[in-house]
Specification:
Layout lengths: L1 E5 L3 H12 L3 E5 L11 H7 L5 E4 L5 H13 L5 E4 L8 H9 L4 E8 L4 H4 L2 E5 L2 H14 L9 E5 L3 H29 L6 H7 L9 H12 L15 H11 L5 H13 L6 H14 L9
Parallel strand pairs: 1-2, 1-3, 3-4, 4-5, 6-7
Antiparallel strand pairs: 5-6
Length: 296
Amino acid sequence: MQLGLIGLGKMGANMRRRIAGAGHEVVGYDPRPEVSDVGSLQDLVSALTAPRVLWVMVPSGDPTRETVASLSELLEPGDLVIDGGNSRYTDDAPNAELLSAKQIGYIDCGVSGGVWGLENGYGLMAGGSDEDIEKAMPIFDALRPEGERAGGFVHAGPVGAGHYAKMVHNGIEYGLMHAYGEGYELLSAEPLITDVPGTLRAWTHGTVIRSWLLELLVDALAQDPGLTEISDYTTDSGEGRWTVEEAIRHSVPANVISAALFARFASRQESGSPTLKAVSALRQQFGGHSVHRAGS
């Protein structure tokens, strides 16, 4: 299958490699000419055979909306656009309506896997029509982890469902990361515990709290014992806020997710929290997110 991929940053570049490795032809476009296969969006569209499938992997908000608007002027009836970025789900209906007026399909797809997705595969949550999902399924199968499709891909519902599912996924992520961070701080505070990293490592197999995130925390401590090189300043990229806003809208008591989000706010006002250092280290480990170094 042929795919046009727009945005070749950390995630997009690895996705291009994984899709191509599965035997598909990927034509990539990025404003940086050193990584782009073509010189413009128009060149990208011209390089693809109709009916085209294009995957947008650019920052959420205006960059994505503007890219979709540009594609609406360049594509033809029967083409398909997939927004695989971290857009807010409320952007999906307007994007779909804009493209639908030109008889162009639209899928929103939440993507999880960070910088490790190239090797391990990506968790995918898609929203759109059955017809459009089926058209893009070879690409979804190339990106998802090996094994049963349902273990790494879900057609979550109509347009908007994919990004909504990814939003909740990331909200849960906030809570999990903060719980691990609090556990790390408590172990570090107790003189009886003489091997904090070893204790965390012992939890990575067989225990009920084992997870990939826990393994990444162990890796972070191996690289920087005591997390002395990292600040506790922890940013948030939006999904946690949106999840809390949705919890309010639906009257769902999202106590843990809300507390984890507010703790990130607190990290920007106070310093020296081992819990938030662990959370910041985890964000860097799984997503390659930038961190604030100690003393900066």
